[in-house]
Design goal:
Helices cover 46% and strands 10% of the residues. The protein contains 15 helices and 11 strands. The strands form 4 sheets. It has a 5-stranded mixed β-sheet.
């Protein structure tokens, strides 16, 4: 699995670098199966299959056939999700509510070769806080039902009446697996005890056409902030696919003139998002050198905490797994000793407030500690003695936004270590 994940990351790096001949390497008797699993966990299977169709990536026929199944299910699932969510969108529009489409559903429609290459389990939309009750009434009228309670700020999951709640595969995408509509009232992103105040850029939206309906979507610099904060807050979930999204968006919007680095730097100041965006920006620059402006990267690093820098320096773009975590990673957003204590208490309180599910979660955490899957320090995905390049920002001693990080050496990364599932 480790070798498969590293091979996929190397192929993605090569395609993003526009290399003329990209080969997805295979080794061993079970290489095809391992590559398929790694493609599923990194979220890249359908995209790599599309690149194989387009001639951008070469692979043995067995690998091509395996990945073609990812793309087939991805295409069918994308069509199914789009058709399933349209009644909800129509109901909202009929009540004068224009939802803002964010994250994967947006990037799949606008920035990808086709929607089917971008896996997703949620369709995320933002509606005005004053219209939440109207939005819920509209969804209920179309047969959607809530699967989570209301929380503040409002965020709630809704499932369509014809969606099967089962998960049909844990080895590859399946067109039949559950999807849900996730409704938000805010662009803000919560990081334990503090928020990235992205609503201060909430006016940065543009029209988005979806199947003949006019919705809205974030534009720059809000779009980069939304994507970066999502990646940073969920580093163990489809990290590589989401970083590809970020690289695509930054490159496309720099080319069309909608992303201005000075505007993003200004947005850092009044949203307090720089420190939260840093992991995503550093990993994006690692994956595709030259994508992120060095002033932006330096500013984000200077605003980040020791815990964030400690964590980022040990990550690779193609890593990330749900079964291993660390105390430092859980508390890395705190920017002071008191903040660490408050963050720890808040995590504890969250677990206790959930009742029995919280107790079960804490028991699982203790089991992970006993198995070594939960540690104090962050596991080094680059490996001890690795020749992998450091993150461009981690390679320098940046202390403020005026310092420009040195370029990292371009070497092949060592494969990340992926743990076995412990339960």
């Amino acid at each position: 699995m480790a070798a498969a994940s590293a091979a996929i990351e190397r192929a993605v790096r090569a395609v993003l670098a526009d290399e003329s001949r990209v080969v997805l390497e295979t080794q061993g008797d079970r290489a095809t199966y391992a590559l398929s699993i790694a493609a599923f966990t990194t979220g890249t299977g359908a995209l790599l299959a599309r690149w194989m169709e387009d001639g951008r990536v070469q692979a043995p026929s067995a690998v091509q056939e395996s990945f073609a199944r990812h793309l087939d299910h991805g295409r069918r699932r994308a069509a199914r999700v789009r058709e399933g969510v349209l009644p909800a969108l129509d109901a909202l529009l009929a009540r004068g509510i224009t939802p803002v489409v964010i994250k994967g559903f947006h990037t799949a429609l606008v920035y990808c070769e086709e929607p089917g290459v971008r896996p997703m389990s949620d369709v995320d939309i933002v509606v005005p806080p004053a219209r939440i009750d109207d939005a819920e009434a509209a969804l209920e009228a179309t047969g959607f039902h809530a699967t989570t309670p209301r929380v503040r700020p409002y965020k709630r999951d809704w499932i369509a009446p014809n969606v099967d709640p089962r998960v049909f595969s844990v080895e590859r995408p399946d067109a039949r697996s559950r999807w849900q509509l996730e409704v938000h009232e805010s662009f803000n992103r919560s990081f334990v005890e503090v928020d990235a105040n992205l609503d201060r850029e909430g006016h940065r939206v543009v029209p988005l056409e979806v199947a003949g309906r006019t919705l809205s979507a974030p534009t720059q610099p809000l779009l980069t902030l939304v994507l970066a904060c999502q990646i940073s807050s969920e580093l163990d979930s489809m990290r590589l696919m989401r970083l590809i999204d970020l690289v695509r968006v930054v490159r496309a919007d720099r080319a069309n003139g909608t992303l201005d680095w000075d505007e993003l730097l200004a947005a850092f100041q009044h949203t307090d998002a720089a420190r939260f965006a840093y992991p995503a920006l550093a990993l994006g620059e690692d994956l595709a050198p030259g994508t992120i402006d060095q002033r932006v990267l330096a500013s984000a690093r200077a605003a980040s905490s020791w815990g964030v820098r400690h964590t980022v320096e040990r990550l690779v773009p193609g890593g990330g797994f749900m079964d291993r975590t660390s105390l430092v990673a859980r508390l890395m957003w705190a920017d002071s000793p008191l903040g660490v204590v408050r963050s720890a208490m808040q995590l504890l309180a969250r677990g206790l407030s959930r009742g029995r599910p919280g107790i079960v979660a804490w028991r699982a955490l203790f089991r992970r500690m006993a198995s070594g899957a939960f540690t104090v320090g962050v596991a080094d995905e680059r490996g001890n003695g690795s020749t992998a390049p450091q993150h461009p920002a981690a390679a320098s001693q940046v202390r403020d936004a005026s310092e420009v990080p040195r370029q990292a050496a371009q070497q092949t990364p060592q494969p990340p270590r992926l743990p076995r599932r412990t339960g």
